[in-house]
Amino acid sequence: MKFLAFNNGYCTADKKYIDKKAESRKIKFPATFFYLEISGIKMLIDTGYSVKLVKNAGITAKIYSMVTKVRCEKDADEILRENNINPQEIQYIIISHFHPDHYGSLDKFPKASIICSNEAAEVLNVGKTGKIKNLVFEKLIPEDIKERIIELESFPEAKVSGNNFFNILNLNEIYGFYLEGHAGGHIGLYLKTLNKLMIFDAVWCKENLLGAEPRKILKKVAFADEKKYESSLRKIKEILCSLKDTGGAEPELIITHDEKFLRSPYEF
Question: Which of 14, 114, 126, 224 sits most deeply, having the most CB atoms within 10 A of its CB?
C-alpha cells in the first residue's frame, strides 16, 4: 500500500478569513491531490489545479484565479511523472467535489474512471449560470466525463464502527460518506488500514472543528449551505469519536488545504 500527497499550486489569503480570531497573516492554501496504490489498483483522490485555469479556461475562470490569487505551473500528470508514477496507469480518480482546485487536471487522465457522489455529478448537468455559481468551468471538464463517472451510491453500503459508509470498489478499505455544506455533493473518505479520515474542504483548518469561525464573507461566498456546513462539523466529530472508540487510535485527519501539504511530495 502506498499513499502520498502532492500539490500542483496554491492560492493565497489571510488566515483571518478561515479563523476570524486568528492573527492576520498571509497563508498559502495548497491544491492537494493524493496518490493511493492499494490491492493492485492505482488511483488519485482529486487532481489539484490546472495550468489551463489561469491561462485559457475562459474569462470566468480567469477572474476566479485572479480573485483567489491562484498559482499553478504544472498539471497533476507532470507532478506524478516527476515522482516516477506513470499517469497512464491511473485507473480511478475519486473527486471529493467539483471545485477547480480538486478537478482541475482531470483531462490529463483520459483512461481513468471517475468516482463522485450523485449530487456532485448532477452539478455537471446544470445550465451555464449554475455551472459558474458552482465553479464548474467547462473547459476543464473532459467531454466524455458522463460516460466515465461511477456514482458513489452504486457501491454497497457498509457499517463501520456504527457509521453508514459506501464501500468504494468493494475493497473493504476505502469508505465514502457525505460531507455537505461547502459544495454540492461533497464527500469524505475513510481509509481503513491507514486509519485516515479525509474531509477535504469540509473545514479549512482543524481549528474550525474546535469552534474557530470563518468570517461571514467567506461563509457567504464559499459555502453552498451554511446549515449543512454546521451539520458536517458535528458529523466529523461523531465519526472521529466512533472510530477511536472501536479501534483505539483516533484517525489522522486530512484537510486538503493544510499548510503541511505545501511540502510535496508529502509522505504519510
Answer: 114
Nearest to 178 by CA among 218, 234, 216, 99: 234
Amino acid (one-letter) located at 32 = T
- State the Cα–Cα distance between residues 77 and 106, nearest whole angstrom: 9
Which residue type, as a one-letter code, is found at position 90?
I
Ordered DSSP codes for 147-216: HHEEEGGGSPEEEETTEEEEEGGG-SSEEEEE--SSSTT-EEEEETTTTEEEEETS-SSHHHHTTPPPPH
Distance CA 145, CA 116 (A): 11
Q: For the chain, what's the residue count? A: 268
pLDDT of residue 116: 98
pTM: predicted TM-score of the whole model, two decimal places: 0.96
Give the Å distances, CA to CA, from 20 to 99, 211, 213, 253.
Answer: 24, 11, 6, 22
pLDDT digits (tens, 9 = 90+) for 63-87: 999 999 999 999 999 999 999 999 9
Q: How distant, in Å, are the alpha carbons of 69, 82, 95, 237 from that of 66? A: 5, 28, 24, 35
Beta strands 163-167; 187-191: pairing state: unpaired
